[in-house]
Amino acid sequence: MYYLGATLLMFIGVAHSYLGERYILIRLFRKDNLPMLFGDTEFTKNTLRFAWHITTIAWFGFAFLLIHLSSDTINIHTIGNIIGITFILHCVTALVGSKGKHFSWPVFLLIGITVLYASSI
């Protein structure tokens, strides 16, 4: 059942990112009344896009947790590593997606590093 849940999470994550880009974000970005932050709408668009895709990354992280739960031995270090890597991926997505302008990326980086460190001791 864990594998089924993980498979469904992966499926919904891919569908969420693809369909969201194609049918929601692109259409939303065509509107001319988006809030102007930092002088234009580009920051707003980038923030909406990376925030949208961070949801998918989180679901993938949950899928890997479910896969690990299906094993005979549960290892808290592995669970911590999965969580830490998920937040490192959040960091990269926010950093690249916002071109470094959104300040969530250093927080995600700090979370990822501290969790990975805690999992190694």
Keywords:
121 residues; 4 helices; 79% helix; mainly alpha
Describe the secondary structure blueprint for this structure.
Layout: H1 2-29, H2 42-69, H3 76-98, H4 104-120
Helix pairs in contact: 1-2, 2-3, 3-4
Report Rg.
17 Å
Largest sheet features: none
Low-confidence blocks of residues: none
Counting DSSP H or I runs of 4 or more residues, the number of helices is 4
Strand content: under 5%
How far apart lie the N and C ends?
Answer: 31 Å
- Fraction in helix: over 70%
The beta-strand count equals 0
Structural class, judged by helices and strands?
Answer: mainly alpha
Mean pLDDT: 93
Q: What coarse outline follows from CA principal-axis ratios? A: flat
Summarize the helix and strand pattern as letters: HHHH
What does this structure look like?
- With 121 residues, the protein is mainly alpha-helical.
- Helices cover 79% and strands 0% of the residues.
- The protein has 4 helices and no strands.
- Helix 1 (2-29) runs antiparallel to helix 2 and helix 2 packs antiparallel against helix 3.
- The chain is flat.
- The two termini are 31 Å apart.
